[in-house]
Amino acid sequence: MIVVTGATGQLGTAVVRHLLERLPAGDLIASVRDPAKATALAERGVTIRAGDFDDPQSLRSAFAGATQVLIVSADKLGTEALRMHRNAIQAAAAAGARRVLYTSHAGARADSPFAPAEQHAGTEADLQAGELAFTALRHGFYAESCLHMIGDALRSGELRVPEDGPVAWTARDDLAAADAAILAEEGRIDGISPPMTAAEALTMADIAALASEASGRPIRHVTVSDEAWRAAKVTAGMPAIYAGMLLGTFRAARRGDFARVDPTLQSLIGRPPRGMRAILTAFFEKR
Length: 287
Fold this sequence. Notes:
By secondary structure, this protein is α/β, with parallel strands linked by helices. It has a domain at 2-139 and 171-192: 3-Layer(aba) Sandwich (Rossmann fold). The protein is built from twelve helices and nine strands. It has helices spanning 10-20, 39-43, 56-62, 78-94, 115-129, 143-156, 172-184, 204-215, 226-235, 240-254, 264-269, 276-285; strands at residues 2-5, 28-32, 47-50, 68-71, 99-105, 133-139, 158-162, 191-192, 220-224. A seven-stranded parallel β-sheet has the order 3-2-1-4-5-6-8, sandwiched between helices. Strands 7-9 form a two-stranded parallel ribbon. Helix 1 packs across helix 7 and helix 8 packs across helix 12 (276-285). The longest helix has 17 residues, at 78-94.
């Protein structure tokens, strides 16, 4: 049995969908905080169990009988995220799972200025220190995160951002398909995976140029100071802690933390991953 945590979230839902193309529904368990939100999965024959990273006992019940557990990383920061992930890892071991898989990040670094990358490195260290077989899925930076960060600026026609560096922006659904392939073929990747990325890394100037083509109008790229960018975000209503986290994205990118590309994702999904040109074209077509 394969357990997918966070199975009603964007990534978890997509992983289950791709798994259903490969395996019988009876082989799958969706671990969710609110089973009432998982009715669509239940209707497809997936077993639904209540599991909360903050409730270790619920996780042990949700993971019962599992051979593999996919831990979709918590949408939290710092020590809180590390604690929640440890709860899930320990529950998988207690349930007798053969392998735990964890959705990490291609930019995972213990010294990263991007806080989530630092906590991913911490959970990878916990996995390496344990006795359970594991796969850390080093996902490329979600292309959807890029659009969330700068989508309004692209629509305005002026992309004002700090100094940056190349980022291998990668479609979330492609990563979900790859995760499903690894789960369906247990042991295909052991330990920390190579970066699972799209085929090219792009700067913000590259994004502005592609967005200009996709939208049919010029979009200017303007580099501003870190301090000016953060102040503008806070003035616009963004919480300071969140503005600081997003600023860490640019700081990590400018030192090359997200620049590496790798063919692993294409090998796993059996086709070229979606690129930002196609993603930006779809973005503007919806508006």
